[in-house]
Structures are given as structure tokens and as C-alpha cells.
Amino acid sequence: MVDNLIWATGRHIFKFGGEALVRSIDGYLTAGRDSYFGFTGFSTFAQDSPFLFLAPISRQNAKALTTPDYLRQYRYNQSYLFAQDSFKLSSRLVLD
Questions:
Q1: Helix ranges, the chain (H)
Q2: How far apart are CA 52 and CA 49, in angstroms?
Q3: 47 shares a domain with 21
Q4: Over the stretch 30-58, which tens digit does the pLDDT of each residue have?
């Protein structure tokens, strides 16, 4: 949301305004969520003998071996206000 107000009187031009920006995004991060089994070929797959196994583990309590929470929430908020006076000193000179 952005809004500005301009008020001209005499040799002054007053400008006031402001902005409010609120953004958020949330959802589930799926990268790395599922476990991975790596096999060198079809024969090791048939023998159920993987050479690599990757599984996500929460780093907050690694001893408990729990999966991390994949729900992510991000927020970005900003706002500003301004006030400005433009004064016409002469026909060729304006001070802000």
C-alpha cells in the first residue's frame, strides 16, 4: 500500500507520503525430505544391498534421530514515511 499527498499553497509545495509492504510465503520444502538408496546395478538392487543410504536427520536433537520439520515460513515487512517542503525562492530557484 502506497499513498502520497501534495498540498500547494503560496510559494510552498508540501509533500507527504508513506508505504507499507507486507509479504509472506509458507509451504513445505520437499528437497531432501525423502530417503535415498543407491545401488551399483540391478543385481545389488535384487539382493537388497545398497552401497549408499541417505536419510534426513534433525540437527536440533541428533541423538533422538527425528526427521526435521519441513514447514517453512518467511516474512518480509517494510514501511516508510516522508515529508518534504519545496519552497520557491525565485522564479529560477527552488529549495527542497
A1: 42-46
A2: 9
A3: no
A4: 777 788 899 999 998 999 889 998 888 87
